Please model this.
Amino acid sequence: MMIKLLIILFIILLALLGVFMLTHLEKPFFLFDQQHLISVQKIMKITGYLLLITSIIGVFILLLAPLSFNLVTLVLGSVITGGFAVIISRFS
Model:
């Protein structure tokens, strides 16, 4: 039961992070200069949508599949956020 609660918390965190990225596209993100702003917005939009899709998939897996299948949600969410961090670090 505790594992399911932690998975739910992780899915909520993924969804909130995705919504945050999509709603803050026009606002300054860290301290990037204006010449990289379009690229950063594009990366944030793609990452936001991927995180929302991952959280939706995670909800379906949580409700329909065995608990061990939630590893897919954990790995996808971690790879997407890690990839975003690596890509965004190239702009600084």
